[in-house]
Design goal:
The protein is an alpha/beta fold and 532 residues long. Helix content is 37%, strand content 14%. It has a single domain, classed as Alpha-Beta Complex (Amidase signature (AS) enzymes), CATH 3.90.1300.
Length: 532
């Protein structure tokens, strides 16, 4: 009889152990990327139904109970049914896309034909739009499962509070703002209520919540992603952008939602410019050889934020990036807020009326109607809905801001906005830069009880430059302050440079690994994913 050597026995035992379920590699739910989820779904160690159940359980545990984040306005009652349908289709036909069966959330200013779209306002409570937004149609076609519509700054402007959804809390520190206007998307994704989601950005509304909640997010190039079916704030600046805990997931989402839409004329500029798969651009060594301009104009306001920035610059330099200090003209820094408001306020008056005309007759049809109805809402309700005088007072200022035919508006539109684009293009070109880098927020997240910032951004914030120019801006978690609040870093590049920005951002993310699950929304038992 042949004798089996000790070495062979050990090797056999290790092979059996490696093949056993107990030896499977597992990832915490919040740490898993869409790529990890797809690997688990393909292997059969995970189903979309199970993944959706885990996220719904976290929403139940943390959104109205526990820390009560109030990041969700409405859970999709058919989420599990849709997840089961995606599981069945995977078995019979295979996956439609990398988002097949992947749970996502949508900011509640993005139309869904099967769920109310309210803009966070009691004034539009229960409003079912006539059809899905273009981006929602694309996500559904890709097989994504919509888990929830999430809270926001009402009508996507102001602090992270809405009359319908209430005050959104930051899961890292419940006394701090999650930032707006996509605060519900930011807080819900940081708390791992879904794999990824959509926000909208008119003056920093994807980027503020991304940095304040410690996740990744992308303000897209004007024209890359359709805004059809999105409640407008100002179409000169409005963009739809993906948000997620991981840069890979931002890229996966962008691959689905980017594209030309005949219903949004701005997307004609993106003809032939979208990538079929932005994840293919991601490389861990993308910082090697990159040229990055550091905009120190937006530093010097918070020592902890500056420390994180300097550490990030150091990390990028060590990864092979060339670092160049850049300065923007002082007049631009001082005027950009005025430029922004000159466009934003009068456009809302006209464009919200255009949107309201598409809704049921029982809803307001003009900004004057909204103001009139708001003045009749004077007390909190048991479900948490309540008056929102801050945002409603802003509607009065918007209604008195002039028209889109006034010289104040046309001068900024025709002369100032091209000037901003030319300045940023000049800086990028003169220094041969891949991106301009700055702290997404120059200060740590503000206290919720602190006075609201002036709309349009103060001179110390860099975020609205990307809106004024139409350029893309990628946010990646960069570190934490002394009091454990997230700090994000922004990479602004020329129009339609998303693939390059995502590559650089991914390289930075993998080198620094600065994201973490918030302390107020810890993992619950069983919230892991077995991956091959």
């Amino acid at each position: 009889m042949k004798t089996i050597s000790r070495t062979s026995i050990v090797a056999l035992a290790l092979a059996v152990f490696a093949a056993s379920p107990a030896a499977q590699k597992t990832l915490d739910l919040d740490a898993a990327t869409i790529a990890d989820v797809n690997a688990a779904l393909a292997k059969g160690s995970l189903t979309s139904e199970r993944l959706t159940q885990m996220f719904l359980a976290r929403i139940d545990a943390y959104d109205r109970k526990g820390p009560a984040l109030r990041s969700v306005i409405a859970v999709n009652p058919k989420a599990l049914e849709q997840a089961r349908a995606m599981d069945a289709e995977r078995k019979s036909k295979g996956p439609r896309s990398p988002l097949h069966g992947v749970p996502i959330v949508l900011k509640d200013n993005i139309d869904t034909a099967d769920m109310a779209t309210t803009g966070g306002s009691v004034l539009l409570e229960g409003s079912i739009p006539p059809d899905d937004a273009f981006v929602v149609k694309k996500l559904r076609a890709a097989g994504a499962v919509i888990v929830a519509k999430v809270n926001l700054s009402e009508f996507a402007s102001g602090v992270a509070h809405s009359s319908l959804g209430g005050q959104i809390l930051n899961p890292h520190d419940l006394t701090r703002s999650p930032s707006g206007s996509s605060g519900g998307t930011g807080a819900s994704l940081a708390a791992a209520f879904a794999m990824a989601g959509l926000g909208t950005d008119t003056g920093g509304s994807v980027r503020g919540p991304s940095t304040a909640n410690g996740i990744a997010g992308l303000k897209t190039t004007m024209g890359l992603v359709s805004r059809d079916g999105v409640i407008p704030l100002a179409l000169a600046f409005d963009t739809v952008g993906p948000m997620a805990r991981h840069v890979y997931d931002v890229a996966a989402m962008l691959s689905v939602i980017a594209g030309v839409d005949p219903a949004d004329a701005a997307t004609t500029a993106g003809t032939g410019r979208a990538s079929a798969d932005y994840t293919q651009a991601l490389r861990t060594d993308a910082l090697k050889g990159a040229r990055l301009g550091i905009a120190r104009d937006f530093m010097g306001q918070d020592g902890d934020v500056d420390w994180v920035m300097e550490a990030s610059i150091d990390a990028m330099r060590k990864q092979g990036a060339t670092i160049v200090d850049v300065r923007l003209p002082r007049w631009l820094l001082e005027a950009k807020g005025e430029y922004y408001n000159a466009i934003r306020y009068p456009e809302f008056v006209v464009q919200i009326a255009d949107y309201l005309k598409t809704l049921d007759a029982k809803y307001p049809k003009t900004i004057a109607d909204l103001i009139d109805r708001a003045r009749r809402v004077n007390a909190p309700r048991p479900d948490g809905a309540s008056p929102n005088p801050g945002r409603w007072s802003l509607m009065v200022r918007e209604s008195n801001s002039g028209t889109i035919n006034d010289y104040q508006y046309t001068t900024v539109r025709d002369h100032a906005l091209p000037l901003v684009r030319a300045i940023l293009t000049g800086v990028l070109t003169a220094e041969k830069l891949d991106a301009i880098v700055y702290p997404t927020a120059s200060r740590r997240p503000a206290m919720i009880a602190a006075p609201a910032e002036v709309p349009g951004g103060a001179a110390g914030s860099g975020s609205n430059l990307a809106n004024l120019s139409g350029f893309p801006d990628l946010i990646v978690p960069a570190g934490f302050t002394t009091d454990d609040l997230p700090v994000g870093i922004s990479f602004v590049g020329p129009a339609f440079s998303e693939a390059r920005l995502l590559a650089i951002g991914y390289s930075f993310e993998q080198a620094t690994k600065a994201r973490r699950l918030p302390v107020h929304t810890p993992l619950r038992p069983g919230e892991t994913i077995a991956v091959p």
